């Protein structure tokens, strides 16, 4: 299994940092925090940080110093980190300067946590460090590695280990009818299902959580997964 990517939050406002850290950790990233730039020195000098998010409370001088010493485009070289700087809307000069000094991205405050997380994911993908394994269904996108269901409405659900195993089994056998014995052998019930070992119940719960009609019951035979037709909108 691939190592988890590491994201550092430096001087990010506490109200944002809490939501962002939770959002990233649920998607399979490790999050480390430094409340002050001087705390970031020891964190970044140890290496192993993929992306650094710098909050807008950091002074211009402090931000430039971190970029010059630890960014991939600066002193950090290939072993350095990609930097995303949060800036205030009027700080256009700071934004341009940060990009010239090697920041990978600059985002204005107030920010949207989901947008920032998406930008972090984009950087990790370009570095070959993306930790997502995405499956697109009719009404939701599933990240199998973090066991997260992201609905089109914006709501999110967490899959249990047994549900992930069951979904992986269907994904590995598209359009093939799987018998109850196939499912029991490849994706046995969890302890939480000890009082309800009905395969039908497990399928119903999975369908409901995924909001999908792609898993159908073939009466007298078993169950079949039919991949959805790609959306064009």
SSE blueprint and pairings:
Layout lengths: L5 E5 L3 H12 L4 E5 L2 H9 L5 E4 L5 H11 L11 E6 L4 H9 L4 E4 L4 H14 L7 E3 L3 E4 L4 E4 L4 E3 L2 H12 L4 E2 L1 H7 L12 H12 L4 E4 L3 E4 L8
Parallel strand pairs: 1-2, 1-3, 3-4, 4-5
Antiparallel strand pairs: 6-7, 7-8, 8-9, 10-12, 11-12
Q: Which structural class is indicated by helix and strand composition?
A: alpha/beta
The helix-strand sequence is EHEHEHEHEHEEEEHEHHEE
Q: Low-confidence segments, ≥5 residues, pLDDT <50?
A: 192-196
For the terminal residues, how far apart are their CA atoms? Answer: 34 Å
Sketch the major β-sheet: 5 strands, parallel
Give a count of the beta strands, DSSP E runs of length 2 or more: 12
The rough form would be described as elongated
- Indicate the percent of residues in helices: 25-40%
Tell me the Rg in angstroms.
22 Å
Average pLDDT level? 82
> Proportion of β residues?
15-25%
Based on the model shown, name its key terms.
233 residues
Overall description:
- It contains eight helices and twelve strands.
- α1 crosses α5 and α2 packs parallel to α3.
């Amino acid at each position: 299994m691939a190592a988890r990517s590491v994201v550092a939050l430096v001087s990010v406002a506490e109200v944002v940092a809490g939501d962002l850290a939770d959002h990233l950790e649920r998607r399979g990233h490790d999050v480390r925090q430094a409340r002050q730039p001087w705390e970031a020195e020891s964190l970044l000098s140890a290496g192993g940080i993929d992306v650094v998010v710098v909050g807008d409370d950091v002074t211009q001088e402090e931000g430039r110093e971190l970029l010059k010493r630890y960014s991939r485009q600066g002193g950090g070289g290939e072993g350095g980190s990609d930097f995303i700087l949060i800036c205030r809307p009027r700080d256009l000069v700071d934004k341009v300067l940060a990009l010239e000094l090697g920041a990978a991205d600059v985002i204005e405050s107030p920010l949207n946590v989901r947008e920032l997380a998406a930008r972090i994911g984009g950087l990790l993908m370009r570095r070959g460090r993306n930790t997502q394994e995405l499956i697109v269904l009719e009404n939701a996108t599933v990240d199998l590695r973090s066991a997260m269901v992201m609905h089109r409405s914006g709501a999110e659900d967490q899959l249990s280990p047994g549900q992930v195993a069951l979904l992986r089994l269907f994904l590995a056998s598209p359009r093939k009818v799987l018998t109850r014995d196939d499912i029991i052998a490849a994706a046995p019930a969890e302890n939480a299902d000890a009082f309800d070992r009905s395969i039908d119940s497990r399928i119903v719960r999975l369908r409901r959580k995924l909001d999908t009609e792609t898993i159908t019951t073939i009466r007298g035979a078993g169950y079949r997964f039919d991949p959805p037709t790609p959306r064009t909108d």
